[in-house]
């Protein structure tokens, strides 16, 4: 797959470069035709200064070079986007960890995570049911910055096992005297890959489309 992607990218860039070169040649031909006409019809008493001709040639070279570079960069960007989408298809069927506040309970077991931008002296996770009622509070203690995984056994604060299903959760972190809200992360299964506005999107179950760069972990 990598060889195919590289070959496709090289072909696209080569085509763009050839097109830009052709456009550059046509532009130069038009410029030279106008320049020759201008020299033939100049005022003998006030001929063009050599520095003016040199300046015009330099401006043509600069503009043409920029146009050719832009065409090549645009083609390369389009190829890279297509290659990224093609490579992303290998994630279909895999579980990914992405931003989200849902936690799925199945057979008394569930996993999720939070992302801390800084260390925490105390990390608390509060799990709620579909009606917003708090069913369980998990105290995760002190944690380092980064992704912190946690498990829930499916029981409420009184020890009663709850029904399987999807629950919501929120997290809060305390460091010294300040409180912050960590980023909630949830696991989901990649069902498909799409290209939206030039960006590869992963369709992750009930969470809908998720940008590829939002994925924190792939299982």
How is the main sheet built? 7 strands, antiparallel
| CATH topology descriptor of the largest domain | Immunoglobulin-like
Helix/strand order, N-terminal first: HHEEEEEEEEEEEE
CA(first)-CA(last) distance: 21 Å
Write down the overall mean pLDDT. 78
Low-confidence segments, ≥5 residues, pLDDT <50? 1-9
Total number of strands? 12
Put simply, the count of helices is 2
Helicity, in percent?
25-40%
Report the structural category: alpha+beta
Radius of gyration: 30 Å
According to CATH, what is the class of the largest domain?
Answer: Mainly Beta
Protein architecture, described:
Strands 1, 3, 6, 9, 10, 11 and 12 form a 7-stranded antiparallel sheet that branches. This protein folds into 2 domains: 2-91; 95-218, Immunoglobulin-like (Sandwich). The protein has 219 residues and is an alpha+beta fold. The chain is elongated and about 95 Å long. The chain starts with a helix and ends with a strand. The protein is built from 2 helices and 12 strands, in the order H-H-E-E-E-E-E-E-E-E-E-E-E-E.
Indicate the topology.
Elements: H1 2-40, H2 50-88, E1 95-99, E2 102-105, E3 110-116, E4 120-128, E5 134-143, E6 146-152, E7 165-175, E8 178-180, E9 183-196, E10 199-204, E11 209-211, E12 217-218
Antiparallel strand pairs: 1-9, 1-12, 2-7, 3-6, 3-9, 4-5, 4-7, 7-8, 9-10, 10-11
Helix pairs in contact: 1-2
